[in-house]
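Technical note accompanying the year-one report. For the benefit of new consortium partners, we illustrate the data format agreed upon in the data management plan: each record pairs a sequence with a structure-token string. No post-processing was applied to the example shown here.
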Amino acid sequence: MDATIFLFLLQDGIINGAVYALVAIALVLVFAVTRVIFVPQGEFVAFAALTVAALENGNMPSTPWLLLALGAMAAVAEVVWHFREITLRRLIRIALLDLALPIALLLLTQALAPLKLGQLVNILLAVALITPMGPMLYRIAFEPLAHSSVLVLLMAAFGVHFSLMGLGLLFFGPEGIGTKPLSDASFSLGSLVVTGQSVAVLIVTAVLLVLFALFFGRTLLGKALRACSSNRIGARLVGIPTSVAGQFSFAIAALLGAVSGVLVGPLMTVFYDSGFLIGLKAFVAAIIGGLVSYPLTVVAALGVGFAEALFSFWASNFKEVLVFTLIIPVLAWRSLYAPHVEDAE
């Protein structure tokens, strides 16, 4: 391996690692606030990329119909599980967020999709369609199990994953699709060719990470989520509604997944089930970060991306297996030396 090849591999690793970092941060956030190992996080990535691809071709994506179905299920779930607590104000909120919002986005998508208004409109519309799915999924599948063990929540997460993967096959089909790059520009740094898409990925990731840090460090909602992640019982005792915190964490996770899908669409051919592998690689980074530390998770994600690039050069047929084996020494070390902490609940 000469210096030129190393630089190309380093570039690929950093770009892939930046995408993994966004997905891994979402996994850490959801686990910290709700104790859910959110296996379906990758579905947000795939669905966003496939939605953008459909809009680029002037076709009506199936995403609004999925959102409407999830909204109806979330409305029914909330009414059933909170029947004794239902008020008129709560019913109005359910009707607006779970029914009116998906219907409005459905009509908006039907009106805008044939017009091909450009990449910015397609991206904003895709993000708007994917983001509300997060809190809807939380209320459908996880809020009723909020006091269950981590293992039960993990089983529920796998159930949601397989359901969404089947729906993805139904709605988007088995064909792989790519999207247009965010920028067609390119320039040279010595022997290294840097594309505009690579720069866009780094800029968007850096901006989101800064906003993420500011949100948790400066806003009241961010501090409430941090309180829930530190001690759920204590957060409830001081008046922080953990259910609302869970919904917000899932909304942020869906937003980060949607943006990751927009970024990864031009880099690879996306299939309905491509998000699972992306989510697994991000999960490796999240485990290395201890499912606690956001900065360490970002660093670990960049390391996973670079390791994947090296493995694809040396042993491309086994790169996925080799990436996943990175988690083994970390788990072994923690099982031997990390102190055992009882679940707070």
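Partners are asked to follow this layout when depositing records. The chain is about 75% helix and 0% strand.
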